[in-house]
Design goal:
Blueprint: H1 26-35, H2 39-45, H3 49-52, E1 65-72, E2 75-82, E3 87-88, E4 91-92, H4 104-117, H5 138-146, E5 151-154, E6 169-179, E7 192-199, H6 223-229, E8 238-242, H7 243-249, E9 252-255, E10 271-279, E11 305-323, E12 340-347, E13 362-366, E14 374-392, E15 399-407, E16 414-416, H8 427-430, E17 435-444, E18 458-464, E19 467-470, E20 480-490, E21 497-503, E22 509-517
Antiparallel strand pairs: 1-2, 3-4, 5-6, 5-9, 6-7, 7-8, 10-15, 11-14, 11-15, 11-16, 12-13, 12-14, 17-20, 18-19, 18-21, 21-22
The protein binds 2-acetamido-2-deoxy-beta-D-glucopyranose (3 copies).
Family: Belongs to the peptidase C2 family.
Organism: Gekko japonicus
Keywords: Hydrolase, Protease, Thiol protease
Length: about 525
């Protein structure tokens, strides 16, 4: 009814296929432009695209039904929409393509709206906004662009003198180092400029400052280099800026990190662990799981607790805490995200039960506390065991969450459920634990050297009754920093806690033995 020869795709898919319509959803259109840049991504969202395409030779196959897949709260969900799209005077009013007969972007927008509002095409923004970290370096951006990780940039919607729209989201479609100067003329090294290409989701209205489409700065760049970066002068909403101008003109950048967990990847791969949980109120402190943030010292440790291990000397750990989308509750006057975040503590190497005190455990990381759907943190952690406590900012808030932890070496992320060790049959004979002792050994100084180079390879064994904790070996030092922690559930309080220090060679040879308490 809208055009001749309607298609899902015309000449394949491109980031230019999206033109924002009457909705203030630049954030969605900008993100979809990024999606269109990478086949492996959009083909997940638009499944079996060949089968879904209109086939003029088999018109009887067409059902007017389209499938899209969206990742919601850890699951890929199939959203089905019909082919009816809202129009005024025969023109699509929402997202549309430059080509009149191409409909993937309009149908995708409709499906996304259905996913969140069950058929209501008006929806609000609610994706995570990641403020640009001051340490975000050019190289970092370039590397991510190289690995084709989508970026979108957002500003605060009025047009500035320089052609940018305030309060608007743009997609970052390329990041390049551009060589300046004609190679023939400049015999020495050519100067390089770090540049970013942006796209306005309106498909028009471009930056008109330095390095914009027709600007004279480009006369300093060879034709070859211009072809290499794919410079076009069309008023298609896409333009180049220098990194410096971009930094001056934008306040926020959202980065979508593509974490490859495939064993066969040529890039770095990650081990992924997912846990789903909930903050739930209960008048019994031992059963309450809605304790609020660290400010609420009396209830903080009542939150759900998760433990994981870092098994390398140091590992980069990526953590994402996502709360359940609240937008379906909009009609009830709710629907806003809760303020959420998490804390990470380095704990005893043998901890298997929930934390009830914070005497010796060291807080090693805190996420941002913010009312976003997802809170993300990248942190470098040393070898050891860690407890991660996800919380809402205020105590007593009930909702569900999903926690994802990505590490290089499997982290064995699991929930700590027990408040104390499970009673064993032998306890009837041995007696039940009477005291819990926690110990932290910081360092050992001035050890006797054990080899010609004057070093030693010390490690600790901390034991009590039948329990034992062994520290990693510290190599080539007579002043070792351990920071090893252990927890003991003691049946016989007269039995001491024994700390032994050994040097690693063929035979274990104790330096000394000492019982710090008993
Ligand atoms: C071209 O580059 C030279 C050297 O960096 C600079 O002085 C000149 O202003 C540039 N020309 C334009 C039009 O930007
Ligand atoms: C955007 O960048 C240009 C060039 O650096 C600068 O002159 C202008 O003031 C910037 N705009 C804002 C709002 O900072
Ligand atoms: C992960 O790597 C594999 C192998 O290189 C590739 O086939 C797959 O598309 C990658 N996944 C993502 C999300 O980049």
């Amino acid at each position: 009814e809208l055009c001749e020869d309607p298609r899902l795709f015309v000449n394949g898919i491109s980031s230019h296929d999206l033109h924002q319509g009457k909705l203030g959803n630049c954030w969605f259109v900008a993100a979809c432009s990024c999606l269109a840049l990478r086949d492996s991504l959009w083909q997940k969202v638009i499944p079996k695209f060949m089968e879904q395409e209109w086939d003029p030779r088999q018109p009887e196959k067409y059902t007017g039904m389209f499938h899209f897949n969206f990742w919601c709260f850890g699951e890929w969900i199939d959203v089905v929409v019909d082919d009816r799209l809202p129009t005024v005077n025969g023109e699509l009013i929402f997202c549309h393509s430059k080509e009149r007969n191409e409909f993937w972007s309009a149908l995708l927008e409709k499906a996304y709206a259905k996913c969140y509002k069950k058929g209501d095409p008006r929806y609000s923004r609610g994706e995570g906004v990641f403020p640009m970290a001051p340490s975000l370096q050019k190289q970092d951006l370039r590397r991510r662009r190289k690995q084709q990780q989508p970026l979108t940039a957002r500003d605060f919607e009025t047009e500035t003198a320089m052609g940018l729209i305030q309060g608007h989201a743009y997609s970052v479609t390329a990041i390049r180092k551009v060589s300046l100067g004609e190679r023939l003329l400049s015999c020495s090294k050519s100067e390089k400029l770090f540049m970013i290409r942006l796209r306005n989701p309106w498909g028009k209205k471009e930056w008109n400052g330095a390095w914009s489409d027709e600007s004279e700065e480009w006369t300093n760049v060879s034709d070859k280099e211009r072809r290499k970066i794919g410079l076009t002068m069309d008023n298609d909403g896409e333009f180049w800026m220098t990194f410096e101008d971009w930094c001056k003109n934008f306040t926020d950048v959202d980065i979508c990190r593509l974490v490859n967990t495939s064993f066969f990847s040529i890039h770095k791969t990650w081990d992924k662990k997912i846990m789903c949980g909930a903050w739930r109120k209960n008048p019994d402190p031992l059963l309450n799981h809605a304790g609020g943030c660290f400010n609420n010292r009396a209830t903080f440790l009542q939150n759900p607790q998760y433990v994981f291990d870092v098994k390398k000397a140091e590992d980069k750990v990526l953590i994402s805490l996502q709360q359940k989308d609240q937008r379906i509750h909009k009609k009830e006057g709710k629907g806003e995200n809760f303020v959420i975040g998490f804390e990470i503590f380095k704990v005893e190497d043998n901890r298997e039960c929930r934390m009830h005190t914070m005497h010796i455990q060291e807080k090693v990381a805190t996420s941002a506390y913010i009312d976003m759907r997802t809170v993300f943190l990248k942190v470098l952690l040393k070898r050891g065991r860690y407890v991660l406590i996800p919380t809402t900012f205020s105590p007593g808030v009930e909702t569900e969450f999903m926690l994802r932890v990505f590490t290089d070496v499997p982290s064995k992320l699991r929930e700590l459920k027990l408040n104390k060790p499970k009673p064993e049959c032998l306890d009837m004979l041995r007696g039940f634990p009477k005291r819990v002792s926690q110990i932290r050994i910081h360092a050992a100084e001035g050890l006797e050297s054990q080899d010609q180079s004057g070093g030693a390879n010390p490690y600790l064994i901390v034991s009590c009754e039948n329990a034992k904790v062994r520290s990693p070996v510290q190599q080539g030092t007579v002043n070792a920093v351990f920071n090893t922690q252990a927890i003991f559930y003691r049946r016989n309080v007269k039995h001491p806690i024994v700390v032994q220090l050994f040097h690693t060679r063929l035979l274990r040879k104790p330096f000394f033995s000492r019982s710090p308490c008993g």
